[in-house]
Design brief:
Radius of gyration: 16 Å
Strand content: 25-35%
Shape: globular
Largest sheet: 4 strands, mixed
Helix content: 25-40%
């Protein structure tokens, strides 16, 4: 089941103070189709925890921020046959949750790195020099995600 495109009106989203979609693109890489990260900034840690549990059904979160991968391995048994498949959201590859008052470069970069890994697992996009240095497949999207988070937070006046 796909995620809602906006969580601000979600019953668990009462503590959201900023919401933004992050497409992965850049001067040397065209848009990677529809894939995006969903960025949510919460007023408090408590509201982030409640959202994670109620809206995402996840109880594994960090103390100050989190990035949830939006894919799930599914094993189904039909007619005695076992089928394995990956259930994914068609638009979002992850949800990044941050808390106002804890918007440091260390936290933003850490969560962007998780998101870069999740993106590289979902995308077929090839980056420059990725064949010689496979880490480029994570580093390029991580940098783009961190820059987009920074722009969003700056534009909304959320840095203190």
């Amino acid at each position: 089941m796909p995620l809602p495109r906006s969580f601000s009106g979600h019953p668990a989203g009462r503590g959201i103070i900023a919401e933004h979609d992050i497409p992965i693109r850049g001067h040397d890489a065209p848009r990677a189709g529809r894939l995006r990260a969903k960025l949510l900034v919460f007023k408090t840690r408590r509201s982030m925890y409640a959202f994670s549990k109620q809206a995402l059904g996840r109880n594994n979160f960090g103390a100050l921020a989190l990035a949830h991968e939006l894919s799930e391995d599914v094993i189904a048994i039909k007619g005695g046959k076992t089928e394995h498949f990956l259930r994914v959201d068609p638009v979002y590859f992850c949800v990044i949750c941050l808390v106002r008052g804890f918007l440091t470069m260390e936290i933003i970069t850490h969560e962007a790195c998780h998101a870069g890994i999740y993106f590289s697992q979902r995308s077929r996009l090839r980056w420059p020099n990725q064949d010689e240095a496979p880490s480029e497949g994570i580093c390029y999207p991580t940098g783009r995600i961190a820059a987009a988070i920074n722009r969003c937070l700056h534009d909304r006046g959320l840095y203190e």
